[in-house]
Description:
The structure is a homodimer. Chain A contains 13 helices and 13 strands. By secondary structure, chain A is α/β, with parallel strands linked by helices.
Amino acid sequence: MRIEAVDFFYLAMPEVTAAADGSQDALLVRVAAGGHVGWGECEAAPLPSIAAFVCPMSHGACQPVAASVLGARLDSPADIAAIAVRVARNSMDLLQAPHTLSGLETALWDLLGRRHGEPVWRLLGHRHSAPKRPYASLLFGDTPEETRARCREARAQGFTAVKLGWGPIGTGSARADADQFAAAREGIGGDGLLMVDAGQVFGEDVAAAAARLPALRAAGALWLEEPFAAHAYEAYAALAAQSPVGLAGGEAAHNLAMARHVVDYGRVRFLQIDTGRIGGIGPAHAAARHADARGAVYVNHCFTTHLALSASLQPYAGLSRHDICEYPARPSALARAVPVAPLPIADGAIRAPDAPGLGVEVNTAALAPYLQQVEIRIGGRTLYRTPPLD
Amino acid sequence: MRIEAVDFFYLAMPEVTAAADGSQDALLVRVAAGGHVGWGECEAAPLPSIAAFVCPMSHGACQPVAASVLGARLDSPADIAAIAVRVARNSMDLLQAPHTLSGLETALWDLLGRRHGEPVWRLLGHRHSAPKRPYASLLFGDTPEETRARCREARAQGFTAVKLGWGPIGTGSARADADQFAAAREGIGGDGLLMVDAGQVFGEDVAAAAARLPALRAAGALWLEEPFAAHAYEAYAALAAQSPVGLAGGEAAHNLAMARHVVDYGRVRFLQIDTGRIGGIGPAHAAARHADARGAVYVNHCFTTHLALSASLQPYAGLSRHDICEYPARPSALARAVPVAPLPIADGAIRAPDAPGLGVEVNTAALAPYLQQVEIRIGGRTLYRTPPLD
Lengths: 390, 390
């Protein structure tokens, strides 16, 4: 097969707020080849990501992503890897390119799986799709009371694990944060798993993050996620050396090397990878193997749709030791509209679907209200216009 | 002052080829505040970088760069640093943002310097603008003969130092590369400085790069630049441990942490920073101090205009030990048209200008033939249209 068409669809809620809710918009990618279609999702700013696909070439190492994809051969996983190598080389100086490629690469896997009638995880070499324990991924409330209520609600929905993130953490005193952590523990109950996501709020300030460790330990938190800026490996390592709570990080990794580094230099114990950012399912799979080899735990990063959720499960589907799964528990109406049906949770566990490709059907008919009509023109030439979604 | 307006101008040659010549297009930024104007240049794909300035917000940590800049206070270097902190936080998930910010941040320094009647390097705390030895930055020829001729031409123009990059290096045999290195040495003469830029061609293949070391040593190369992908610090360190030739790298750094890491993890001896990519002059200045503290040599990265060249000189203007300067020796007609006058080379040396701001006047009248007319619309709303250039 040859890749015949690549279409990007920018979807957004009618109102987008400054909350840390990444499900307020979405960038879907549809790929067509040999009579088959595959879908993927970029976890990325839609407009710059579309621009990175269609922009004019600046020079040989700053070409649009399209130049390395359209017309390329697609018969095997090796062909997908070859496309990724070409994008890395030809779009070396185009910073946004990995985010654009991520959803596209995922769509290539989906298409290839559908063509061969195999789930993506099997194409990756996994022999089974192991059960993962889904944790409800939530934002902290503005107050401990709100946080407690959100955790109770998640528990009532059947979740035995909860992660709280962002909100006021790190913006006030360590005491105020301790009240939040304690409220979260109360809400989820003594036997639930509790994780905390600081959303990079401490920058590179190790002392400020360390001041939160006693309360995290008292609340029995499994991990402290992203205390620092994504590249601040020195700070991660310095905190890891003194923390009784494991550190988690890696969601910002936009290539495999960054995933390695947050483990090897940053000493995180939980490596969180977003297939919608790292370049897709191929590099995420390599990151999972790296985490496994290093004794770290691989965890998917996902806060958007069940299309992205399935993609995020594929890389570590068969790695039984890595048994935790981020589950977007309060996604936007747009995110809920994307799949025809959500991935089921059965007996408290979720699995990568045993169905061709990603095993998720995109509900194109439901997406019309969210579709953004975009047009990009240079010198009278139309580089991009939102394609029909049907 | 408050930042009143930020205008991006996308310039391109009539024909852009796949050569590794980064001067075939340019993205200039003009900032207005308090009756003053400053200019900067992004070393970046223009269309995605413009999109990163104007795109709709995706969520609180994925806001357009404009949200952190327009209307912001600009009275001191600390205000510029505060803007950079806000962009890093508010545009955390917008991968292209650092490239967009780089030219913009440079323009803020230019504006501030003009307002205070001071060169940027003085605002940075440098007490003088030390002479640097310019090296002609060239691409390898397709054959050793072409390479030799280019080096001879540079020598005839007065350059006593030459860097050759890209071209066929690494794509054929080590023997073929050795012939290129020897030809370059012949062309520049026995007493000239010779540097080699591999343009990331070896990916992460340490053995392939190591196979070129004997010939580099025989040719008396001062450094081997970017043998590997930008993030492949493990490969850099492995090669550095066995190389008689110093390694150089860092041009792809799009934040200060990456600059630190290529020195601290990658063990490069020459840290090359592009102010048009790392986020501007502020982080480049911090990178220069880091290199100095670590005993490495800081070198500017510049392959485009003299506006970018002046910006690239400011961060290390007063650091006398760091006395080499990349000088674009065969820039495109577009790149030559940008400044009213180029930075002079006097007595074989170049210096950051002793003039307000960057000390470079932009020749707007000469740029009309290169100006690209861009329009970006979403849902009937125009997010960007090329502004008048006058």
